[in-house]
């Protein structure tokens, strides 16, 4: 279960911090896409509103940990992944094709990373 948002006041902006805990990579990815799409939808809706009626989208910061995962970006090729399906299972790792740039990437538990905030700009 995903924890509720905790707003953190920061000058005139708000950062919405969400701790997702230990979560499968794909589940976290799908949730990030959902948050992004909600922000884009609100910004699109704001275009047709008077300034006084526009809704703030805020800034979202997601923290999570997931088990070993290999990702393959748009410019990657599957033959560069040197593990078979059995090898992935032996390492308790999963593999996902993703829609980002880059080739391939291994992410291990307890690794930290930050993705660009879809609400900024």
Describe it.
With 121 residues, the protein is α/β, with parallel strands linked by helices. The protein has 2 domains: 1-46 and 56-64, no CATH class; 67-109, no CATH class. The protein is 23% helix and 28% strand. A 3-stranded mixed sheet has the order 1-2-3, covered by helices on one side. A 3-stranded mixed sheet has the order 5-4-6, with no helix packed on it. Helix 2 (85-90) links the parallel strand 4 (69-72) and strand 5. The longest helix is centred in the first third of the chain and has 22 residues, at 25-46. The model is unreliable at 116-121 (pLDDT under 50).
Q: Nutshell version of this structure?
A:
This protein has 121 residues and is α/β, with parallel strands linked by helices.
Key terms:
121 residues; alpha/beta; 2 domains; 3-stranded mixed beta sheet; 23% helix; elongated
Secondary structure: elements and pairs:
Blueprint: E1 6-10, E2 13-22, H1 25-46, E3 59-65, E4 69-72, H2 85-90, E5 94-97, E6 104-107
Parallel strand pairs: 2-3, 4-5
Antiparallel strand pairs: 1-2, 4-6
Percent of sequence in beta strands: 25-35%
Pick out the low-confidence regions: 116-121
Structural class: alpha/beta
What is the molecular shape? Answer: elongated
Helical content (DSSP H or I, runs of 4+): 10-25%
Task: Report the radius of gyration as a whole number of Å.
Answer: 17 Å
Write down the domain tally.
2
The pLDDT mean sits at 75
Q: What is the H/E string?
A: EEHEEHEE
The number of helical elements comes to 2
Q: Biggest sheet: strands, sense, closure?
A: 3 strands, mixed
End-to-end Cα distance, whole Å, is: 30 Å
Q: Going across the biggest sheet, name each strand in turn.
A: 1-2-3
Tally of extended strands? 6
């Amino acid at each position: 279960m995903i924890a509720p948002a905790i707003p953190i006041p920061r000058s005139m902006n708000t950062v919405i911090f969400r701790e997702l805990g230990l979560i499968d990579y794909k589940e976290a990815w799908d949730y990030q896409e959902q948050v992004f799409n909600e922000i884009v939808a609100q910004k699109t809706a704001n275009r047709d509103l008077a300034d006084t009626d526009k809704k703030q989208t805020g800034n979202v910061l997601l923290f999570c940990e997931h088990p070993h995962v290999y990702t393959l970006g748009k410019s990657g090729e599957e033959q560069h992944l040197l593990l078979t399906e059995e090898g992935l299972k032996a390492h308790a790792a999963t593999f996902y094709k993703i829609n980002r740039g880059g080739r391939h990437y291994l992410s291990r538990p307890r690794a930290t990373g930050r993705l660009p905030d879809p609400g900024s700009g």
